[in-house]
Amino acid sequence: MKVKKKPVQRVKHVPQRTCVGCRDVLPKRQMLRIVRTAEGVRVDLTGKLAGRGAYMHDRRECWVRGLRGALAHALKAELTADDRSQLESFMNTLPQDTPTGTAETNK
Ligand SMILES: [Zn+2]
After folding, report:
1. Is residue 1 part of a domain?
2. Per the domain annotation, does 7 fall within a domain?
3. Is residue 29 part of a domain?
4. Which of 49, 59, 60, 72 minimizes the C-alpha distance to 26?
5. Which residue range forms the structural domain that includes residue 78?
6. What angle do CA 43, 49, 33 make, to 5 degrees?
7. Separation of CA 94 and ligand 1 centre (Å)
8. What is the pLDDT of residues 53-106, one digit of tens each?
């Protein structure tokens, strides 16, 4: 049986990117971009910085993994101590991975 009317829906050009932390592929807009600029490695919240970029989830787990080496590899750059501390402080603003979104009850 063939469905005629619907042509294979051309995905509306959603750029996909790979998270360097967990290697999942997701639409670009759901990712954070990290760029190697002349001043160092930065989190590119505007998505407009020029430079070699890499993408990661806004999940701390991915950042932890990425900072272990995958990010530097993706950017083809060494992370300086300064880069690293900037990335780490950004990482600390990210939510911890919560198992199933249940509200924290015991504090
Ligand atoms: Zn990830």
Report:
1. no
2. no
3. yes
4. 59
5. 16-91
6. 40
7. 12
8. 999 999 999 999 999 999 999 999 999 999 999 999 999 999 886 655 455 444
